[in-house]
Amino acid sequence: MKIAELLGSGQQNATPLRQLEKLTGFDGRMVRSMIASERLHGVPILSDNANGYYLPADEDERARFVRSMRHRAREIMRAADAVERGAREV
To answer: Cα–Cα distance between 41 and 17 in angstroms, integer?
Structure first.
């Protein structure tokens, strides 16, 4: 079973994680793991915190998702760096 086969196209057709859990019979952790695997194999599964998971309707949606993920990655690195620096000061 592929998660992408359960998803609609466009953010307005996003499927919440809870619904994907019901459709697959898997818990959230497994569904997210399946999504991560499909993404790493080139399937463009997009998501947002408000609506859920979806396939891109156009290149603009895909580009917005990529920008968002890269921004989140930078923020995570900043937090990790700050904690690491703080550990050296203790």
So the answer is: 20
- The type of residue at 34 is M
3-state secondary structure of 60: helix
User: Could you give the CA distance from residue 66 to residue 17 in angstroms, rounded to a whole number?
Assistant: 20
Q: For residue range 35-89, what is the model confidence (pLDDT) as tens digits?
A: 999 999 999 999 999 999 999 999 999 999 999 999 999 999 999 999 999 877 6
Angstrom distance (rounded) from CA 10 to CA 18: 18
3-class secondary-structure state, position 41: coil
Distance CA 21, CA 18 (A): 5
Q: Are 44 and 62 in contact (CB under 8 A)?
A: yes
CB 14 within 8 A of CB 51: yes
- Compute the distance between CA of residue 79 and CA of residue 57 in angstroms, rounded to an integer: 33
Is the full-model pTM beyond 0.90? no
